[in-house]
């Protein structure tokens, strides 16, 4: 007997093979391609095979399509599309990703209200969890085999999320909760699968820490410290993993439907596991699922009409032609985003980030599409009052993003392994500062001026940050909730669109406030 465990994770609303930079693209990813892979595996399964499918979180947020649906759902009721799509593929279980909570509990409940599969949330407590979850685990009885699936979500959600979106929910350690449930499930089932929207803070081969152990990514500990797990499905980090750790098969299928994770477990006549293997099934060469395409096409057309609405004309160069140069020296686009944040929050200093190397920036004519493909997260803003020493510490963290290798400035290992973390480097406006990259990490900020004068350690400054950074995420421990003096409900895409609508003669220029010594 074989059990084949298929998984998608971090689809982020990329349904058709299109990244929304234009209406006519045909990329190698998308949930509708993953759907074809899943149906192909099912159709080709032998009689002695059980095929399971798990949707592992971050499904309803993350693309211009999900943004459109969120902004129009009360009028158009389009968010039931998520339930309809998933129902068509008949998942055996799903878990909640951290980005599911970006739009709040009621939106999650409304989006999944017509689902015909269980959403599992073993490590999330509180009365409100009943609105969005069907329990901690499910047990499937198929072909004489009992299979338990335990659902877990990274406990780090409250560290990023606006508390207003979380109701009375409490997020507990996935490791601690798994230790409670897995032994019980081993008594109830022949095979125990853990579906975890979280990743790994350690190297899978050596066990060496590859990021600070904060509790955000407890996958490695699950495989080392919880006896009885027979397979682990992971996500959250957008990594591509198909491996065995401590003898336990584990997968992580990237993001946007690029791959489908597959774990195959073989059992003998006594229902004992004799072998296991892992694989990532590439979706690139598979066709779009025609049935699901018919469900999506009309919404996609509405999204494209919305995205192509013109907002404003700008003067100057707002494109991001060289992402590394933009991070090293600032860039007209990044400076404009900071200026918008400063205007909205009524402060003189702001920081923003270039989320990845695919951010296009703004051409002379800016559309809704340009905004949503250049600022890709629904971040809200916060203002913190920090000391000069706090701000310097934040800049030192930024300066550590770079290293010099063979006389070339590249991204340091800390920010590039196990995955690129472009989103954890910030560019600041409102201050003049210099990084000396020839100096050791922690000693690289050699100039930091505000309004033409050096900043003292005890000086108090108000800084506008996105919500993610304002709570210290990305190892920016100098920022924290207790230093926040103002928060705002509007998300950044809306703030940017409103600003562009309301301002004429917007001039974008290459800033001169960041200098690099190399």
TrEMBL record:
Q: Which GO terms describe its molecular function?
A: hydrolase activity
Any idea which UniProt keywords this protein has? Hydrolase, Nucleotide-binding, Signal
* InterPro entries per record: 5'-Nucleotdase_C (IPR008334), 5'-Nucleotdase_C_sf (IPR036907), 5'-Nucleotdase_CS (IPR006146), 5_nucleotidase/apyrase (IPR006179), Calcineurin-like_PHP (IPR004843), Metallo-depent_PP-like (IPR029052)
What domain of life does the UniProt record list for this protein's source?
A: Bacteria
| Residue intervals of the 5'-Nucleotidase C-terminal domain | 332-480
Question: Does Nucleus count among this protein's keywords?
Answer: no
What the entry lists under Pfam families is as follows: 5_nucleotid_C (PF02872), Metallophos (PF00149)
Outline the extent of the Calcineurin-like phosphoesterase domain.
3-239
Q: Which family does it belong to?
A: Belongs to the 5'-nucleotidase family.
Under what name is this protein listed? Bifunctional UDP-sugar hydrolase/5'-nucleotidase
Per the UniProt record, the source organism is Apilactobacillus apinorum
- Lineage of the source organism? Bacteria, Bacillati, Bacillota, Bacilli, Lactobacillales
């Amino acid at each position: 007997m074989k059990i084949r465990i298929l998984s998608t994770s971090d689809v982020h609303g990329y349904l058709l093979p299109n990244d929304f930079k234009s209406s006519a693209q045909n990329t190698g990813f998308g949930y509708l391609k993953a759907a074809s892979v899943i149906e192909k595996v099912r159709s080709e399964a032998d009689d002695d095979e059980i095929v399971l499918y798990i949707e592992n979180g971050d499904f309803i947020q993350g693309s211009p399509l999900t943004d459109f649906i969120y902004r129009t759902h009360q009028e158009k009721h389009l968010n039931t599309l998520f339930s309809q799509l998933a129902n068509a593929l008949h998942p055996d279980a799903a878990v909640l990703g951290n980005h599911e909570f970006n739009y709040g509990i009621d939106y999650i409940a409304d989006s999944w209200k017509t689902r015909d599969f269980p959403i599992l949330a073993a490590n999330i407590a509180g009365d409100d969890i009943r609105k969005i979850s069907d329990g901690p685990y499910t047990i499937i009885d198929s072909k004489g085999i009992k299979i338990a699936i335990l659902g877990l979500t990274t406990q780090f959600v409250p560290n990023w999320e606006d508390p207003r979106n979380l109701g009375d929910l409490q997020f507990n350690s996935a490791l601690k909760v798994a230790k409670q449930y897995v032994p019980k499930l081993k008594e109830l089932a022949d095979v125990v699968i853990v579906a975890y929207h979280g990743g790994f803070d350690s190297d899978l081969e050596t066990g060496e820490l590859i990021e600070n152990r904060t509790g955000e990514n407890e996958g490695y500990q699950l495989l080392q410290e919880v006896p009885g797990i027979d397979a682990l499905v992971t996500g959250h980090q957008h990594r591509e993993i198909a491996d065995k750790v401590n003898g336990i098969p584990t997968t992580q299928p990237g993001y946007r439907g690029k791959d489908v994770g597959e774990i195959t477990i073989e059992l003998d006549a006594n229902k004992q596991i004799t072998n296991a293997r892992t694989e990532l099934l590439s979706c690139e060469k598979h066709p779009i699922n025609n049935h699901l395409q018919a469900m999506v096409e009309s919404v996609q057309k509405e999204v494209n009409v919305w995205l192509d609405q013109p907002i404003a004309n700008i003067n100057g160069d707002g494109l991001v032609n060289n992402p590394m140069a933009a991070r090293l020296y600032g860039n007209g686009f990044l400076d404009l985003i900071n200026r918008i944040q400063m205007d909205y929050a009524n402060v003189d200093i702001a920081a923003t980030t270039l989320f990845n190397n695919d951010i296009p920036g703004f051409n002379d004519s800016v559309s809704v599409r340009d905004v949503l493909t250049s600022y890709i997260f629904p971040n809200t803003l916060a203002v913190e009052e920090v000391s000069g020493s706090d701000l310097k510490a934040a800049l030192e963290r930024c300066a550590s993003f770079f290293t010099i290798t063979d006389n070339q400035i590249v991204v340091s290992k800390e920010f590039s392994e196990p995955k690129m973390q472009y989103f954890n480097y910030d560019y600041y406006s409102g201050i003049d500062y210099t990084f000396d990259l020839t100096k050791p990490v922690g000693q690289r900020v050699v100039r930091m001026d505000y309004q033409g004068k050096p900043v003292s350690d005890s000086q108090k400054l108000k800084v506008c940050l996105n919500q993610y950074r304002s709570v210290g995420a990305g190892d920016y421990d100098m920022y924290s909730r207790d230093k926040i003096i103002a928060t705002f409900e509007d998300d950044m895409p809306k703030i940017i669109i409103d600003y562009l609508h309301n301002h004429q003669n917007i001039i974008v220029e290459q800033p001169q406030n960041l200098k690099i010594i190399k």
